[in-house]
Design brief:
It comes from Paramecium octaurelia. This protein is mostly helical and 141 residues long. It has 6 helices and 2 strands.
Length: 141
């Protein structure tokens, strides 16, 4: 007997890839082309035009040996260089007079200002559809 629920399982390593975030150059679904664009397009096109196995292998080697933002390939493994990962320097805010957060409370807007804003954003009015220089001409007629 079948139940009404379907079970979704993640692939091995999928959770780990998501935690890497910006530091993983292969983010995207399985069929999505995920090249970091580290080899110039002119070089790739010239090697593709040769239509030889050596050209294809040369492109693959150029892509693997190219310098990534945060690491490089060693053999078949991608090695992360921790010195290239940005370290955020968060300042100490003790004794700082301004509050380090944004207030959740917004200032009250009076009714007159609110109706002016609503009239300006209402595109059913002809004065908002026609440029101001033409509205002066319409008023004179």
């Amino acid at each position: 007997m079948q139940s009404g629920f379907s079970v979704c399982r993640r692939k091995a390593g999928q959770t780990f890839r998501k935690t890497l975030g910006l530091y993983n150059y292969k983010l995207g679904h399985q069929q999505y082309h995920k090249e970091p664009g580290s080899v110039s397009l002119n070089a790739v096109e010239q090697l593709k035009n040769t239509k030889t196995y050596e050209g294809i292998m040369r492109i693959r080697k150029l892509r693997q040996e190219s310098d990534r933002v945060f690491g490089k390939f060693v053999g078949t493994k991608f090695v992360v260089d921790k010195s290239r990962i940005p370290q955020y320097d968060i300042p100490d805010l003790t004794g700082f007079e301004l509050k380090p957060y944004v207030s959740y409370h917004t200032p009250q807007v009076d009714k007159e200002t609110q109706t002016k804003l609503e009239r300006m954003n209402d595109f059913n009015l002809i004065e908002n559809l026609v440029p101001r220089s033409e509205t002066k001409l319409l008023d004179k007629k």
